[in-house]
Amino acid sequence: MSTIRFHAMPTADAETLWNGGTDAYGNLPETMVSDGPGHPCRHCLKNIDEGESLLVFAYRPFPSLQPYAETGPVFLHATPCPRYDCQEVLPTILSSPDYIVRGYGHNDRIVYGSGAVTPTEEIAARAEQLLKRSDIAYVHVRSARNNCYQCRIEKVQAFSDASHAI
Question: HSE (CB half, 13 Å, CA atoms) of 7?
């Protein structure tokens, strides 16, 4: 059983953009047409197929502004798509040879020394290792070439009371 889960952009964030809302910089998202692989949707965690419309916008996957709240460009299908729900499986958008895997504390700040360029096939193991640390609350997977946010990884929460087990 996996001890980690991959999490896509929250549906509420995607719905804001699909319904005409603004991005992290207060701008409307730009609309473009995908020319093929390389446009990963941060909501369904699948690549946006060639010929499909997409939104490109500034995204800040943090709850508030602070010096470590990185903001960068990401993509989203222009029309609503289902949120990624196969959380224990490496998302299909992670198809490059490697990514930055980096830990963040409970205060939503980078935990220095936790980031590393990681081969794609080792992402889950690296995240599990990082999430064993008490100073790391969650992990980001980011592009190793452009630092763009891909998804978040969290540890599976164990229930202390057996009556809550599913």
Answer: 15
